[in-house]
Design a protein that fits this description.
alpha+beta, BirA Bifunctional Protein, domain 2, SH3 type barrels, globular
Length: 286
């Protein structure tokens, strides 16, 4: 099994990045999301990265499985501890970072709302984000005996969330046997016509994640940049609520997105409906 990430594991000394300041590498896990949550519950620092060569139970939206051959792709999750107000942009952050990586290789990628990164309609990557809100301590460990000089926590302190973003990015994914599946997959190597160094891809991904996360943490927003990469806008769509096969459907024009990333669907009567979740299918208007 390829193990290129071994030398990246551990605390990264002298790093000025938040994302990737600590990297844990595993040959095989059930899911990097599961391991990331385990690490988060143990007090993993903001920006801790879990990366694996293989997942036996990788998952995406609606608990779909994520297929990847061992040692071929980027399978990673990142523990983040942002302010509550930033939680809604974490999924955008992850998708936008993948688009940045594709661009760095000369590949023009876009985002199918809300989280699929595609190249000419073929799926290059999927991202997910999960979070738990509440006051979060920034120190991973606290003494059970605070001592006489201990001061109680400030009840007005900024509330944070613990979040985990997961990214499955096809790097050297072998497309043989997957032609005609929905959605059609692609990979960086397929787009370039040759194998790609996964370490280079991971470093570029972490650098982009950190840049966008730093922008958010400093009070900025990535919604305009994310919106600019959406390929869904301006197209007729069908939205199926809930898990695939759900019974509630909405048809209309993907008119825009709002400030928190909801898709604004305009129905046949000209009414706008904000959609926060659901399965999007493009309608055939030919």
């Amino acid at each position: 099994m390829q193990r290129e990430f071994e030398n990246l594991a551990g605390p990264v000394a002298g790093s000025d990045q938040t994302v990737g300041s600590v990297i844990h590498h595993f040959e095989a896990v059930t899911s990097t999301m599961d391991v990331a949550w385990e690490q988060a519950n143990k007090g993993a620092v903001d920006g801790t990265v879990i990366v694996a060569d293989h997942q036996s139970q990788g998952r995406g939206r609606f608990d779909r499985s994520w297929v990847s051959e061992p040692g071929k792709d980027i399978l990673c999750s990142v523990v983040l501890r942002p302010r509550v107000s930033l939680a809604g942009e974490l999924l955008m952050l992850a998708a936008l970072a993948v688009v940045d990586v594709a661009k760095s290789f000369g590949i023009d990628a876009g985002i199918k709302w809300p989280n699929d990164v595609q190249v000419a309609g073929k799926k290059l990557a999927g991202v997910i984000a999960e979070s738990v809100s509440g006051p979060v301590a920034h120190e991973p460990e606290q003494s059970n005996d605070p001592g006489p000089d201990h001061e109680p926590p400030d009840q007005n302190a900024t509330e944070h969330v613990v979040a985990v973003i997961g990214i499955g990015l096809n790097v050297n994914f072998n497309l043989t046997g997957y032609e005609g599946t929905m959605p059609d997959p692609t990979s960086i190597s397929a787009e370039l016509g040759g194998q790609v160094d996964r370490v280079v891809v991971l470093k570029r991904l972490l650098r982009s994640l950190d840049g966008h996360y730093s922008e958010l943490s400093a009070g900025g927003t990535i919604v305009p940049a994310w919106r600019a990469k959406l390929t869904t806008l301006g197209k007729m769509v069908t939205i199926t609520s809930g898990s695939p096969g759900g019974s509630t459907k909405m048809h209309g024009l993907a008119h825009d997105v709002d400030s928190i990333g909801r898709l604004i669907v305009r129905d046949a009567d000209g009414r706008n409906w904000p959609v926060s979740a659901g399965e999007v299918t493009l309608q055939d208007t030919s």
